[in-house]
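User: Predict the full complex structure for these chains.
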Amino acid sequence: MEGVIRAADEGSLSDEQLFRLIGRLWALERMFYYVYGGWGQGLELNDFPPSVKYLFARQIYDDSTHEMLYLDAILKKGWAATQRDVFQHPYGRFEMDSALAFYAFSLRNFATYPHTIRIAALNLGPKILELHWMEALGEALPDKELRGVFTSQRVENRSHVNMGRRIVEEHVGRPVDAELCRWACTVVKQDYGRYLQEVSDLVLGRTTSLAPATTTPVTD
Amino acid sequence: MPTLKVNHERCTECRMCYIVCRELDINAVYVALEPLHRIEIDATACTYPGCTACLMYCPAEGSIIEAESGRSMVPPPLETWRRRGAHVPV
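Assistant: Here is the predicted structure of the two-chain assembly.
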């Protein structure tokens, strides 16, 4: 996202480019309903203390807020008239053959892993990256409203990172689980990196080759 | 024309109003940046009393009010149903 942040800082991002950026971020946030739906199905009664589930519920709510913020911004800026339009627009549409889809499915597949592992993977991987690029982008954007869309997410993003840390510190005790957390974190960080590269390429109108996706044979 | 606003002392932030308003493509309910991520109603986009869908979906009594009179609109008073053409026994 460095290129996008630099362009924002120089004030050279056009409305069209900003629509591309927020449209793709919205498309990802929408996918979190799907990801968290799968993760929620894997939570059983008494498998974790209620505090773990409360934190997860809070995270779902926050990511839903972020999805709403992006859509509100698109509508307020007049880049699209309705939600239906954005669903069908190339910038807001979900494409199967995309790094976004790869990342979303990668996260969704963690539904079969213990909640502690997947929360560690997401919150101590992509969420940390997101916290930092979003903070930088928020400060770089000249448009006050759009700046607010990003800077207002800071508190919630930071709390997700803290949640990840707390879950790991309190609930990941065995070395094998710690190793699994590290592995999962590396996988989703790579996938998120590919998604960010795809977004940046679209926003800046450039073509770079995406790093090959890491695939892991499913053995469970 | 009367306008609606959210009564934050009663609102549970369930966001049903946001969902229904967005589904109807009215988009008057939005997530405010300040106070942080609170649900608000944009009176300039809201078509009340033409549309009363958010009132029908809101589960928290008294959480949407008429801005001018302060009158609670949740649950929706009888006349809102009548305006929508529903048969309401007297």
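DSSP finds ten helices and no strands in chain A.
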